[in-house]
Amino acid sequence: MNAKHSTLIGKLSLLVVAMFAFGYALVPLYDVFCDITGINGKTASEPVSAEAAIIDTSREITIEFIARPNQQMPWIFKPEVRRMRVHPGEIHIMNYLAENPTGRAIVGQAVPSVSPGQAALFFHKIECFCFTQQYLAGGNDMLMPLQFYVDPALPAQFSTITLSYTLYDVTSQWQDSGQDIATEFGE
């Protein structure tokens, strides 16, 4: 093999390593980008405190609620109401209904998304079932509360915010860990 081929192979190998490193770093970089810009509708994964915000009664925002189980999740999952009009700064409680029609216990995890994505920075969850995994025995149902408010600093261009939850079956994570699901969730 001549020197030109060795140099080319070295450069191509280096390129492959650089591409792999870039791909590996892309996920955390994307998360940082979404946090800074509010794009992708990611909401906080931890509760915020209920600040004594001044309620903006001159303005109403429509909040739309969407809920859907992932294809592998057999639960029935829906909001109690599909749409609500709120004043920025007001604290509201809204419930989602989950029903497990199977004969086995299932652990679910809800993942939220807000649209438009920039509005996610102004949609604050005080309490949310999405902060923790939810256990539901077979044949049972439960109400899962969401307590929230819309920050009065929400730009005037936003008149509607859509909050969407996708519910995933995470039971296998518990089973794979060797823990007894019913004992862990206090049943």
Automatic annotation (TrEMBL):
Primary subcellular site in the record, as a coarse category: membrane
Membrane disposition: Single-pass type II membrane protein
Keyword Cytoplasm: no
Keywords: Copper, Membrane, Signal-anchor, Transmembrane, Transmembrane helix
InterPro entries noted in UniProt: CtaG/Cox11_dom_sf (IPR023471), Cyt_c_oxidase_assmbl_CtaG (IPR007533)
Ranges that cross the membrane: 12-30
Compartments (UniProt record): Cell inner membrane
Function comment: Exerts its effect at some terminal stage of cytochrome c oxidase synthesis, probably by being involved in the insertion of the copper B into subunit I.
Protein family according to the UniProt entry: Belongs to the COX11/CtaG family.
PANTHER family: CYTOCHROME C OXIDASE ASSEMBLY PROTEIN COX11, MITOCHONDRIAL-RELATED, CYTOCHROME C OXIDASE ASSEMBLY PROTEIN COX11-RELATED
UniProt protein name: Cytochrome c oxidase assembly protein CtaG
Lineage: Bacteria, Pseudomonadati, Pseudomonadota, Gammaproteobacteria, Alkalimonas
